[in-house]
Amino acid sequence: MFWGLSIEGGKHYSQIVNETFNVTMAALETREFSGVDPKPSGLAQVIVRHDRTEFLLCSLHHGHLHQQPLNLCFSEGEEVTFFMEGKGMVHLSGFLRPSFNMDDGDMDYPSMSESESEESLGNTSDGKYDWFFTRKFRYKQSDV
Q1: pTM score, two decimals?
Q2: Taking the chain, what is the end-to-end CA distance rounded to the nearest angstrom?
Q3: Higher-confidence residue: 112 or 98?
């Protein structure tokens, strides 16, 4: 499931994590209708406070560097604070990681024979997996 947080300069966003999540992208707001200064300049530094220590995650620069991939995981029970130094707004995005209780027994995955699993992977006679993702995952389209 999607996870996201919009950070305005000068504000701190704190929580004790109740569901493990990954942060995978930091993106600098560039839209004029966002409610923040549409033409800020300089650096926007995204910082996380974790275990009473601050870490610089990335430095985004208006007009030059608008996005930065990240690979961070925050687990249930951890206290985390995100904040930004600079002007503008930064959007952090990522995904929630479902928690699995190993005491519940086996996961409910359908069993497949070897021939069924090859077919479900989209394995063609030439060894390519070209249609796996379009066949396996259905995307819902909506008007925005």
Answers
A1: 0.65
A2: 19
A3: 98
